[in-house]
Amino acid sequence: MRELVAGVRRIVVLLGGGSSEREISLRSGRAVTCALASLGYAVRPLDPLEESVERFRWQLGDFAFIALHGRFGEDGQVQKILERRGIPYTGSGPAASRLAFSKSAAKAEFRNHEISTPRGLVVQASRSREELRSLAESVGFPLVVKPDQEGSSLGVSFVAAADGLIAACERAFSFGPVVLIEQAIVGTEWTVGLLDDRPLPPLKVTVPGQIFDFDDKYGRETTGYDFDGGVTSGERDRIAALAARAAGSLGVIGLSRVDIRVDRSSQPFVLEVNTVPGLTDHSLVPKAAERAGWTLGTLCEETMRLALQGNPVPQIVSSPYDRWPDVADRRAG
């Protein structure tokens, strides 16, 4: 009979929520719920839009699997609540989550650690059109305009020339008062799933347009996925190593995903680190896990096991997978 992760009596899957990524979060959470239930776990979905996480009747032996994308789920808020309640959970702690959720703050940290990232600058909604044009010119076209705190490529625009700048900024500002104007890296798009600092197979993504947008991620069937990527194994290893460094620079642990652009000279640039990556049937991390020979259930179990390494929870069962390095003081800060 299959052994379950020791000490876990019930898994509460946090999904949905009130962010702009609600629908994707519901899909991720339902996929996780089905995968874990199929392995024999008692699973209970919890949607913070319908039930309060703070007032929920948590029980001894509960474990929280966070599948909340966007605000509240990825910015450290729900992590703080779970820590106050003494509930172990997947992913990074409040500080690392908050840092990674702000693209500009994460970019500053990448630079502090000498990790290559596209040049860019932060602009506020109070800036005039003339100021926006001047700032954009200092970055240089083509460029990408994106909300500072948003996921799933919502509000992101590729801007080839100055005449498209204002519309792109207005679109990004509709998601929040702070926007990032960033150098567009002309080349290829890669994504790397991580479990702590161990990478899943890097995945090259190809799309019809200039950027990997929301529709490419969750709607269009024209998106291409290539694990070979037309590059050498050494180049793929370089991409994976950069992803691990980027996540480590932010203190990100557990399951995460790092998005990278590689320019025409094969130089990789880190775009961002996602602390709660999508787990839908269209999502990138499950595709990489499948490439590595794992089902979604296996991936979820390993994510749980890593989370329990640094929490005062009953003994963890032995794993059939490779040994993973212990992470001391995993959620410090």
Please describe what this structure looks like.
It is a single chain. The protein is α+β, with helices and mostly antiparallel strands and 333 residues long. Among the domains are: 99-115 and 185-274, 2-Layer Sandwich (D-amino Acid Aminotransferase, Chain A, domain 1), CATH 3.30.470.20; 120-183, ATP-grasp fold, A domain (Dna Ligase, domain 1, 2-Layer Sandwich). Helix content is 33%, strand content 20%. The chain is built from ten helices and 13 strands. The protein has helices at 22-38, 77-85, 94-101, 103-112, 129-139, 165-173, 214-218, 233-250, 284-291, 296-309; strands spanning 10-14, 43-46, 62-66, 120-124, 143-147, 157-159, 178-183, 187-195, 198-199, 203-206, 224-226, 255-263, 268-274. The strands form three sheets. Strands 8, 9, 10, 11, 12 and 13 form a six-stranded antiparallel beta sheet that branches. Strands 4-7-5-6 form a four-stranded antiparallel beta sheet. The chain has a three-stranded parallel beta sheet with strand order 2-1-3, covered by helices on one side. Strand 1 (10-14), helix 1 and strand 2 form a beta-alpha-beta unit. It is globular and about 55 Å long.
